[in-house]
Amino acid sequence: MISTARSLTQLVNELARLPGIGKKTAQRLAFHLLRIPREDALALASAIANVKDRIRYCESCGNFTEEALCEICRDANRDQGLVCVVEQPTDLFAIEGSHEYRGLYHVLHGTLSPLDGARPESLRIEELVAVVKSRPAREVIIATNPTVEGDATAFYLARVLRPLGVRVSRIARGVPMGGDLEFSDHATLARAISGRVEIE
Prior knowledge:
Layout: H1 6-16, H2 23-35, H3 38-54, E1 56-57, E2 64-65, H4 71-74, E3 79-86, H5 89-96, E4 103-107, H6 125-134, E5 139-142, H7 148-161, E6 167-170, H8 186-194, E7 197-198
Parallel strand pairs: 3-4, 3-5, 5-6
Antiparallel strand pairs: 1-2, 6-7
Helix pairs in contact: 1-2
C-alpha cells in the first residue's frame, strides 16, 4: 500500500479485520469502494452505522431486533408450544431459511466451555427456564451445533429442563459433526429439524 494514502491504508486494515477477509480481499474491496459513486459508498457506511445504532437483542428470545420483541416473538401464528434453542442469532436465521420450523426460539449466545470461561451462568439458561415455566411449552428442541461444546450444552439443558415436565429433543444429525448451522444448506437443516430425536 502506498505510504501517502493513509486513509486507504486505514480502510484496508479495517476491512481485513472482518471474518473471512484477508489482506488481498480487503484491498480489492477498498479499491471497489473508491470506484463506486460516493452515494453508494455513503449508503454502505450509513447501513453499518444504522445496525450499530438500532439493533439490539430481543427481550424474550435474544434474537436481533430493532424493537423490544423481534418479529418472530410478535407473530401470533407461530407455535407457542415449541421452543428451539440455538447458540447464536445466525443459527436462528439458518433454521428459518429451511422453512421447516414454525415455533419460537431461544438464543443462548454461546455454549458451555469451562476452558474458555463459558459456564451456565454466562449463557441465557435461566431465561430459558423462565420461558418454559411461563409458557405452555410442550417441547424444547435443542439445536446447538454438533460439536463437543454443543453436545455438552445440549445434555446440560436436557438435565435442567426435563424436571419441568417438557419434552426435550435434539435436532437429528443431518448436520455434519464439527459443522456450523450457519453454513448448512436449507434442505439439510429441514431434514435435521423434522428428524429430531428426544434426548435420553
